[in-house]
Amino acid sequence: MNWKLLLRKLSTGSPEVAVRSRLPLPLRLLLLFFVFALAAAAGVGIYEYGRGLGGPDRRALSAEVEQLRSHVRELEAERSRLTATATGLETQMKVERAAQEQLAKQAGELDAEANRLREDLAFFESLLPAKANASGILIRSFRMQPDGAPEAMRYRLLVQQAGKVERDFVGIVQMQVNFVREGRNFSIQVPDPAVPESRRPLELSFRHYQRVEGSLTLPEGATARSVVVRIVAAGQTHAQQTFQL
Fold it and tell me: Which fold has domain 132-244?
């Protein structure tokens, strides 16, 4: 028993011995190089795999970017060309519009000049000597025509005193304007008896002839058909004539 106890104490109290194999330094460096090489290869493989999953490489992207830039330059050139064309067309349209407005203005001026010449011709024709046996007050010419607005009318009248003239004639022009409105016949008196101021443009005072001009306004929707012109002095009618419109 003592021998067994002694053997147990010796076996448990003895120090532990570790056996290690020590590699040479060159072999350890070579092994470390292989480890780094394997890690680098794994990293390159992971990078290539990730790049394959992520999209095209840098060269492909650069080529695509350059292609897009070229396309943008083409579009900008086309835009500049179209802008220049539009500017040219707009300038041409402005020139043509200005020319049309000028032509319309000239046409209006020519129409006005033609109307004035016609009126002057009628006026001078009316100044031709009356018949040899004519005497008294004569209505040599009368015209009435629209004056802008549909119901606005403008008139021109020439009155002459023929024969042996010894004194001035003093009187007034009276007009009866006959018109149609909504299918019915109506008439108005000019000047208006209820408005004394309307007499003034139609008053006469002349030795040989007098020209009378003025305007009047018909009721809305009225169309003038005829005018009866009278030359009156001291309540007596010296001349009367009807003019169809």
Answer: Immunoglobulin-like (2.60.40)
